[in-house]
Write a structure and sequence with these properties.
This protein is an alpha+beta fold and about 150 residues long. The chain has two domains: about 70 residues, Beta-grasp domain (Ubiquitin-like (UB roll), Roll), CATH 3.10.20.30; about 70 residues, DNA polymerase, domain 1. It has seven helices and five strands. It has a five-stranded mixed β-sheet with strand order 2-1-5-3-4, with helices on both faces. The chain is globular and about 40 Å long. The termini are far apart.
Length: about 150
């Protein structure tokens, strides 16, 4: 058993220490907003926050997450009313939507540390979270909107 703090709740996961955080979150806890993308940590679809820092959950072993605060897209806002989530809707960011939870979690980490980032800072921070539909312009606009409205 591995004890985790996920979205503010202490939970026990019955899994090996080397199980990836992605699978604990999705399969053991039923929090399916975090997506499996590439499995190699390259695409960012599985991004969650670990002690406020964005990590690729497909690469994080449970043993490394024990004792840390894990935040998934479900934990960002209980009513889906987080400024980023609302900005994503207002800017019509999603097309297929697959990468969106990873994009939002990466953006949340940025705005937590820098509430008023420049466009260049946004682009640099979001680098590495891949949107196969290519909605990068709308992603940047949504982050800028959320920064203004937060």
């Amino acid at each position: 058993m591995v004890e985790l703090n996920v979205n503010g709740n202490t939970v026990e996961v019955e899994a090996d220490d080397d199980t990836r955080l992605l699978w604990a979150v999705r399969d053991h806890l039923g929090l399916t907003g975090t997506k499996y993308g590439c499995g190699g940590g390259f695409c960012g679809a599985c991004t969650v926050l670990l002690d406020g820092n964005p990590v690729r959950s497909c690469q994080v072993r449970l043993s490394l997450a024990a004792g840390a605060e894990v935040t998934t897209i479900e934990g960002l806002s209980s009513d889906r009313n987080h400024p980023l989530q609302q900005a994503w809707i207002a800017e019509q960011v999603p097309q297929c939507g697959y990468c969106q939870s990873g994009q939002i979690m990466q953006a949340a980490a940025l705005l937590d540390k820098n509430p008023n980032p420049s466009r260049d800072e946004i682009v640099r921070h979001m680098n590495g979270v891949i949107c196969r539909c290519g909605t990068y312009t709308r992603i940047v606009a949504a982050i800028q909107r959320a920064a203004k409205e937060a």
